[in-house]
Design a protein that fits this description.
Rossmann fold, 10 helices, 311 residues, alpha/beta, single chain, six-stranded mixed beta sheet, 2 domains, four-stranded antiparallel beta sheet, Alpha-Beta Plaits, elongated
Length: 311
């Protein structure tokens, strides 16, 4: 296998006494879209900030293209950054924003103009290129933000929750752009707390929580962590402390997550569900709803963390 374009090893970061990252590490190959999936506070943005050079005072190593990323300033020119917050001038139009930000990389004017026109076409803003960005919708601004991150043709693109706050149609367009970028050879780190996004575009996925990577691999590899079991959500009028000891008496059921009013369990087969419900009824557990689901990333996250991704 070819040498990874990015190697992250044992990255830890504290904010006072709070550990934001805990011995985090992974590798990334050319053209690969790598998804970091986790709730707010998992450490995703901290990692992106370290890689982009805006957060320091951490331990661990980052090697990019075989070299220490922080020892060779030239390497930073090969990284594109798309932060959560919009990084452009609202009073300028889309073309002028691209020309301004691209000019910081000393790209020859003629080549810069060519790239800007090409990117405006890719992000579907060609017909609005001369309009002030302040008139753009949220989705259009997000697409421009990505174009700015690509203007210098980086080998690595860092995307920190690029679909936050936009509608479904705009999200689909952005995910299509990211897939196209990966197919053209740019490596991508993509952070999100949306399961469907990493399932759609990422070749590999890392599940993060509380500063650590709990598991990583392809979607198929991760789903195997819950084996061949069926996942069942049981809702009702009960407290978590009341239902846990009741379910623990059932050898066929594994508790994936529980809170007041809902418990998620894994069963070898849904044929076991009637016996589970009968046991709950016998113990006066009031049930209002049942949902049966095939194993997916949400079930994996529940198994690894004991809580929902949206918590």
């Amino acid at each position: 296998m070819e040498q990874p374009i990015l190697e992250i090893k044992d990255i830890s970061k504290y904010y006072n006494d709070i550990k934001a990252l805990d011995q985090l590490g992974f590798t990334l190959h050319k053209g690969e879209i790598f998804g970091l999936l986790g709730p707010n506070g998992a450490g995703k943005t901290t990692l992106i900030s370290i890689l982009s050079g805006t957060v320091k005072d951490f331990s661990g190593t980052v090697r990019f293209k075989g070299e220490d990323l922080f020892a060779n300033r030239r390497l930073k020119n090969d990284i594109g950054i798309v932060p959560q917050d919009m990084a452009f001038y609202e009073d300028l139009n889309a073309m002028d924003n691209l020309l301004f930000w691209g000019g910081l990389y000393n790209i020859p004017p003629k080549e810069l103009k060519r790239r800007a026109l090409q990117l405006l076409d890719i992000v579907e803003l060609s017909t609005r290129s001369k309009e002030p960005v302040k008139n753009f919708s949220g989705g259009m601004k997000r697409r421009l933000n990505i174009a700015i991150g690509l203007i210098h043709q980086p080998e690595l693109l860092l995307l920190d929750e690029p679909t936050v706050g936009i509608d479904v149609q705009a999200k689909v367009r952005i995910l299509d752009i990211i897939k196209k970028v990966g197919m053209e050879g740019t490596s991508v780190i993509f952070t999100t707390h949306q399961l469907s996004e990493v399932e759609e575009i990422c070749q590999r996925i890392a599940i993060m929580d509380k500063g650590s990577i709990l598991a990583s691999g392809t979607l198929e590899q991760l789903v195997k962590l819950v084996e061949e079991k069926e996942v069942v959500d049981i809702s009702g009028d009960f407290e978590s402390s009341r239902i846990v000891p009741v379910i623990e008496k059932l050898p066929a059921a594994d508790i994936l997550a529980v809170e007041d009013g809902i418990v998620t369990i894994a069963l070898d087969d849904t044929d076991q569900l009637p016996a589970v419900l009968s046991h709950l009824f016998q113990n006066t557990i009031e049930i209002t709803d049942i949902k049966i689901k095939s194993p997916n990333l949400e079930a994996v996250f529940l198994k690894l963390t004991g809580r929902s991704l949206r918590d």
